[in-house]
Task: inverse folding
């Protein structure tokens, strides 16, 4: 199996057909999807048709695009025209969007071949895919363990080689955490670099779409395709980012800060901490300057996140009311119908967050909860700004532990929330961060190292990621 | 003395604040490219954004901001350096996202005023927000709560609105009506809305309370909705004040509530509500960037503002010598006042007052009857000036001019052509008219005799009769002033 | 300005019922009890920030420092009504059909 970069090159040169690539991946899906459940919906026919269109372009001598013939799995919270888009929720079961998300348009226009819609925690709320209304995704590396979440299906699809690339969304770590659990690369770009148009919103000021890939360079290839201004998204950044593909590995002289609040604290597995320290040493060996750095307000990230994200979600998810699309449970009047529909259509975690968010915004509590969380957000941004005066990038674990077993954290919601403790601060600040697999724990499960960079610092972040990837992570 | 009688002695004053929603006359909706159009087939102007489909995102219409800045300028508002949108969260089937994107504590316009009959009425704020869809209630006589079910059309969902909120600064229904008329005139003049109350492009809600004269604390306010004309606004306020006064005098407590104005019954009635208290959970809209009007944006809005109605009225009254009332009627219709101004500029003879009289009389009626705009009339402003000139020069009489006007509006040509084609001309030939008078006096010796011997009343009567006969004899074409003079001479 | 300064947050059943009404969730009595406990626990963790003195610290509603993101007032395509109504749970006469409306906007 080859990388996305290699597949695209082979298809572009005519060495391979996009159809053969698609058939090969669809065969892999057919062989293992039954046990992994990475997908809510596999679009085999459409994939073959898209592949044929790419081959036809190649045959005509036209440019088939940078993703020519590369299978891409799409998280099932990205709208796909005429293809079921469920957010793994009963409330959207059977809904066929009348439009495509901007990223879907861009992937297709670049020659990418969409192979299906991947499973997630319902409305991207969770860290294990156990909150999917359609059953969890299993970690391809160990079927007794979760793949992480919420983009667990997208991470598993890449790890199981169902597709060399996939797209996920990251609100508090939903790309990086499953990437870490499944041993793949996962990137959360700077807020605004990738258009959110057509991404079904969870928490609008935090959500960002990003790539999963087996290699750093493959992730760069996909991010190059999906990034760039979109006039349909008011929060899309106008400036076009630099091309990240093949953008170097030189880290000599770079200043790398190891964030103590995310690394040296209780709850971080010592094996995970050791892996991050080895990654730091590997960077040092390549000429980087590594020091420990304190970003004090990071410790408040989790609380701020669990007020801001549910608050925004409570509003974003109000529209699922049984009137225009999706599920309806009948009621005597509109109020009864709305309430019965939402009670039947949402799972426990979604309801919990809607309740939490509604409470945090309600009269008398707004200032103590929501506004206070937004002040904490300011503190976090200030602390990061101070850190980036001294450092080019920061380093931490992606998650406190390796992939946990099914059911390990379902009893206590807060223990599940702690899975996001290392990833949340980047979302609150709007900064890019990515997870790179670096070695294995004693449970033989992969460990992820997180590289954090300032806003629009993707270029330096990818360089450091490549250097870490090159070091291999072996103890 | 019972306490009721004591209370009955108390004099109350009325306190009114108005919330006016105005649909902005943009081509597209507030946050999407769907047509902002009244009267389309249901659910044909809808897209993922205004239908609130999952994944859709709003992008602000630049013309809405321009219109908001014009309103800021015209109503003497402070326009802050930054304003933001908030989400107002509540469930309602005609609101596709189940929240309304609106503005809250950082509106685009803060603290303005408008002058009404020489008095400044303070306006607290004006902000941008999206309109809702429209529900039709099926069964139960079309009444919302009695209906069997409702049908929702989202064409109006996302249409841009400005909500203009006055201070509780008005003290009578008359003043409230004056405020709305003036506001309406200003909004029309600056071209931001067609402000049609009957079509709902201007909606006025009134907050009404009463308090003992001499006190400063506000009484419990009642919000009245559903008035579809300025007249019904006045009636609704008067009714509500009376209701509150009677209630207070009989020891009843006024409850803060929303009441519906029933036009046919002429009363307000309270509305049932399932949701006890509303809690809108406002928070900053994360999908939209703040609006920070630049100097260029402010200058462009300022440049788009014509002479405002108050100034225009003042000028017309002073320069054209027309009555305040006529100026008000004219200026309330910007297209017509533009027309009148063009016509006055083209006058060779005749008075500006005559131009205004035609405009506010026959022409306004014609426009209303035909639903046409002045710029589509077959009578151009220059042609109206010509018509006024014909009357002023004595070439045709006023009553003939009406016929000429009708001919011109029917597309028969220029006023002089119409007049000659219809054989309409005023006879001002003194010799010919003197002969007519002589003939009339000779044919009516009794009347002449009665005039000469009668009292003042009889004289007036007989003179009128003789004048009528003379006019008849001239086939209605005699110059009335000349005929009058000649008749007086003949009778002397 | 600590609003909830280290006080133990306690969400009652009636708080939960009120919030469920606002959020249009028809919770079962069991769910009400469960949410009362869970929200109390989760908000209890949030006392670490609700007790911070952040007077004078501005709020950040949004990580992007952009302003005036505007589009031209030009009409674009609308969706096909039949396609849209086909996705509706109930439609009639070109409109979305809903049960009677008892509340007021």
Result:
């Amino acid at each position: 199996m080859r990388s996305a970069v290699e597949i695209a090159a082979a298809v572009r040169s005519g060495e391979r057909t996009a159809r053969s690539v698609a058939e090969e991946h669809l065969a892999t899906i057919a062989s293992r999807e039954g046990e992994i459940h990475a997908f809510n919906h596999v679009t085999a026919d459409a994939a073959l048709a898209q592949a044929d269109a790419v081959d036809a372009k190649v045959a005509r001598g036209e440019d088939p695009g940078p993703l020519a013939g590369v299978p891409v799995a799409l998280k099932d919270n990205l709208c796909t025209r005429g293809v079921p888009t469920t957010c793994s929720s009963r409330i959207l079961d059977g809904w066929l969007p009348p439009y495509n998300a901007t990223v879907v348009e861009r992937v297709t226009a670049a020659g990418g071949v969409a192979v299906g819609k991947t499973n997630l925690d319902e409305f991207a709320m969770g860290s294990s895919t156990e909150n999917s209304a359609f059953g969890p995704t299993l970690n391809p590396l160990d079927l007794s363990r979760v793949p992480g979440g919420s983009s667990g299906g997208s991470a598993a699809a890449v790890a199981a080689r169902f597709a060399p690339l996939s797209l996920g969304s990251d609100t508090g770590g939903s790309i990086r955490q499953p990437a870490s659990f499944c041993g793949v690369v996962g990137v959360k770009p700077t807020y605004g670099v990738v258009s959110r148009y057509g991404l079904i919103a969870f928490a609008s000021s935090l959500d960002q779409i990003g790539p999963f890939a087996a290699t750093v360079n493959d992730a760069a290839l996909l991010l190059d395709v999906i990034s760039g201004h979109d006039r349909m998204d008011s929060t899309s950044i106008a400036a076009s980012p630099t091309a990240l593909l093949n953008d170097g590995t030189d880290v000599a002289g770079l200043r790398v800060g190891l964030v103590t609040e995310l690394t040296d604290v209780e709850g971080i597995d010592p094996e995970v901490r050791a892996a991050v320290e080895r990654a730091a040493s590997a960077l040092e060996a390549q000429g980087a300057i590594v020091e420990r750095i304190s970003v004090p307000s990071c410790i408040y990230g989790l609380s701020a996140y669990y007020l801001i994200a549910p608050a925004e979600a409570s509003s974003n998810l109000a529209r699922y009311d049984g009137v225009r699309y999706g599920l309806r449970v009948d009621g005597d009047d509109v109020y009864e119908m709305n309430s019965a529909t939402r009670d039947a259509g949402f799972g426990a975690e979604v309801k919990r967050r809607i309740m939490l968010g509604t409470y945090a915004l309600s009269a008398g509590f707004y200032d103590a909860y929501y506004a206070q969380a937004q002040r904490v957000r300011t503190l976090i941004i200030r602390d990061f700004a101070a850190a980036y005066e001294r450092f080019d990038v920061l380093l931490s674990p992606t998650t406190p532990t390796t992939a946990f077993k099914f059911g390990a954290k379902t009893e206590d919601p807060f223990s599940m929330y702690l899975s996001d403790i290392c990833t949340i601060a980047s979302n609150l600040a709007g900064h890019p961060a990515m997870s790179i697999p670096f070695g294995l724990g004693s449970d033989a499960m992969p460990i992820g190292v997180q590289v954090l960079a300032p806003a629009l610092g993707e270029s330096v972040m990818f360089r450091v990621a490549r250097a870490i990837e090159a070091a291999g992570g072996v103890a | 003395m019972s306490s009721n009688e004591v209370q009955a002695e108390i004099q109350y004053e009325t306190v009114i604040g108005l919330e006016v929603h105005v649909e902005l006359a943009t081509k597209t909706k507030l946050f999407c490219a769907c047509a902002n159009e009244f009267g389309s087939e249901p659910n044909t102007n809808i897209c993922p954004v205004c239908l609130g489909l999952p994944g859709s995102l709003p992008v602000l219409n630049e013309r809405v901001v321009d219109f908001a800045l014009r309103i800021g300028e015209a109503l003497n508002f402070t326009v802050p350096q930054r304003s933001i949108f908030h989400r107002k969260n509540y469930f309602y089937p005609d609101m596709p996202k189940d929240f309304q994107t609106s503005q809250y504590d950082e509106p685009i316009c803060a603290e303005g005023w408008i002058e009404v009959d020489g008095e400044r009425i303070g306006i607290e704020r004006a902000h941008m927000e999206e309109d809702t869809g429209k529900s039709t209630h099926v069964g139960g006589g079309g009444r919302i709560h009695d209906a069997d079910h409702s049908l929702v059309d989202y064409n109006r969902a996302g249409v841009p609105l400005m909500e203009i909120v006055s201070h509780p600064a008005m003290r009578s229904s008359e003043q409230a009506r004056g405020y709305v008329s003036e506001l309406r005139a200003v909004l029309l003049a600056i071209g931001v809305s067609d402000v049609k109350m009957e079509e709902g492009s201007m909606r006025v809600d009134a907050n009404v309370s009463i308090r003992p004269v001499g006190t400063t604390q506000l009484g419990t306010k009642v919000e009245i909705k559903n008035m579809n004309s300025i007249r019904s606004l006045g009636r609704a306020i008067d009714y509500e004040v009376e209701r509150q006064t009677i209630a207070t005098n009989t020891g009843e407590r006024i409850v803060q509530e929303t009441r519906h104005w029933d036009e046919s019954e002429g009363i307000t009635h309270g509305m049932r509500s399932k949701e006890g208290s509303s809690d809108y959970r406002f928070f900053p809209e994360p999908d939209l960037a703040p609006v920070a009007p630049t100097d260029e944006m402010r200058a462009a809005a300022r440049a788009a503002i014509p002479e405002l109605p108050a100034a225009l009225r003042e000028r017309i009254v002073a320069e054209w010598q027309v009555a305040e009332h006529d100026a008000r009627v004219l200026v309330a219709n910007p297209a017509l006042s533009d027309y009148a101004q063009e016509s006055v500029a083209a006058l060779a003879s005749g008075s500006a007052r005559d131009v205004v009289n035609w405009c506010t009389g026959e022409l306004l009626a014609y426009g209303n009857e035909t639903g046409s705009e002045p710029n589509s009339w077959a009578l151009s402003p220059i042609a109206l000036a010509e018509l006024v000139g014909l009357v002023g020069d004595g070439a045709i009489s006023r009553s003939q001019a009406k016929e000429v006007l009708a001919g011109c509006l029917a597309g028969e040509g220029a006023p002089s052509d119409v007049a000659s084609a219809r054989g309409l001309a005023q006879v001002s030939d003194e010799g010919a008219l003197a002969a007519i008078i002589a003939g009339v006096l000779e044919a009516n010796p009794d009347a002449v005799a009665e005039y000469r011997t009668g009292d003042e009343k009889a004289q007036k009567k007989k003179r009128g009769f003789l004048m009528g006969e003379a006019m008849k004899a001239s086939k209605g074409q005699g110059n009335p002033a000349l005929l009058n003079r000649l008749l007086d001479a003949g009778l002397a | 300005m600590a609003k909830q300064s280290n006080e133990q947050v306690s969400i009652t059943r009636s708080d939960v019922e009120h919030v469920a009404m606002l959020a249009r969730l028809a919770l079962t009595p069991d769910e009400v009890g469960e949410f009362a406990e869970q929200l109390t626990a989760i908000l209890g963790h949030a006392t670490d920030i609700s007790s911070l003195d952040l007077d004078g610290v501005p709020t950040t509603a949004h990580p992007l420092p952009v302003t005036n993101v505007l589009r031209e007032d030009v009409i674009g395509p609308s969706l096909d009504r039949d396609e849209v109504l086909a996705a509706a749970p109930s439609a009639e006469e070109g409109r979305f059909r809903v049960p009677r409306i008892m509340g007021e906007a």
Notes: The radius of gyration of chain C is 22 Å. Confidence is low (pLDDT under 50) at residues 1-6 of chain C. The CA atoms of residues 4 and 50 of chain C lie 6 Å apart. Helices of chain C lie at 13-22, 29-45, 47-50, 81-86.
